[in-house]
Amino acid sequence: MQFGIFSVSDITRDPISGETPSEAERIEAIVKIAVKAEEVGLDVFAIGEHHNPPFFSSSPTTLLAHIAALTERLILTTATTLITTNDPVRIAEEYAMLQHLAKGRMDLMLGRGNTAPVYPWFGQDIRQGLPLALEHYNLLHRLWREDVVDWEGQFRTPLQGFTSTPRPLDDVPPFVWHGSIRTPEIAEQAAFYGNGYFANHIFWPTSHSKRLIDFYRQRFEHYGHGTRKQAVVGIGGQAYIAKRSQDAVKEFRPYFDEAPVYGHGPTLEEFTQGTPLSVGSPQEVIDKTLTFHDALGDYQRQMFLIDHAGMPLGMVLDQLELLGGEVVPVLRKELAARRDPESAEAPTHAGLVKAKYGDGPARQPRPNANRGDNVTGASPYQDSEPAAEYPEI
């Protein structure tokens, strides 16, 4: 089981101090938060992708590569990478490079995003959001598994004899999660390829996430990747922790009330009652998180949102101390005791390499005449079979 934190990279006014951090201050802060996450014993750090104010994370690979250089153990990932408005060729190149620089300590979560104006900014039509997600990932999947790709689709120019560089580290593509809040077609896509499915699990009751996760597990088994129990599931969540529950509610309330994403709507108490939001003592956060397992079964990754709504850096670092020091150790023990032996292990690069090569050495790709030629378009050999085409939905 992996535990981590994710950030949406918002730059929001602090309702207590009245101050809004600069982009430079917020970027510096997020690096400190990621480094602290490793220090307190968490496994994963994730950053979202946005191309509009008030968010700063327009280049996740640049940020994650910098964090990789400052950490030793932390798995770095996204929440999410926009599969709709990014060119899959650029995704293949940039995340393979990140994989090399991070020595395999990375994966990525793909999603459609929820900011409508982004589509025309990158030459796309939001009404084609789902077909874009399906077609773009089919190409990305092939680019990481086939040395030479001939491809033609609806949304970008054809490729002839194309080799994406660098090739994935150890010739093992990064693990991919498909993230979604409400779209069963994305759960279907994750199941078809045998990839992970990540339910955001923030704004909706657990019963909503359960429907999508159950559907993904069913389709994962249908496509022959393993049993339903072996499907790879991640979920989001958000928490605010204090030693005493009344202090947690008092401290978090002004940030909740003014938060752009849920302020001025249901009360903090109503939102906590109806969604996965946890606000309370370490034990209360532990107890609520364990209810996710009760409802969803074994899952492989639990992520928490803790740095948002204008909370200052010091407050976030205090949250990390409590999360890593008092909450996660108990959750690790409790969830390990409940885990079905048939359930999948949490995905890591080392695990993927082991699955592909066993105890043998990993292949290290090198450019040569038999790997294609992007200058002439020649593709004399291919090292792998073409990936299956994604079915129409």
Count of runs of 4 or more consecutive helical residues = 12
Strand-residue fraction?
5-15%
The total tally of domains equals 1
What's the helix-strand series?
EHEHEEHEHHEEEHEHEEHHEHEHH
Topology, pairings included?
Elements: E1 2-7, H1 23-39, E2 44-47, H2 60-70, E3 75-78, E4 81-82, H3 88-101, E5 108-111, H4 118-121, H5 129-143, E6 149-151, E7 159-162, E8 176-180, H6 184-193, E9 196-199, H7 206-222, E10 233-235, E11 239-241, H8 245-258, H9 268-274, E12 278-280, H10 282-296, E13 301-305, H11 313-338, H12 349-357
Parallel strand pairs: 1-2, 1-13, 2-3, 4-5, 5-8, 8-9, 9-10, 10-13, 11-12
Antiparallel strand pairs: 6-7
Provide an overview of this structure.
By secondary structure, this protein is of the alpha/beta class. It has one domain: Luciferase-like domain (TIM Barrel, Alpha-Beta Barrel), CATH 3.20.20. It has a nine-stranded parallel sheet with strand order 3-2-1-13-10-9-8-5-4, covered by helices on one side. Strand 8, helix 6 and strand 9 form a beta-alpha-beta unit. Helix 6 runs parallel beside helix 7. The longest helix is centred in the C-terminal third of the chain and has 26 residues. It is globular, with a radius of gyration of 21 Å. It starts with a strand and ends in a 36-residue tail after the last helix. About 2% of the residues have low confidence.
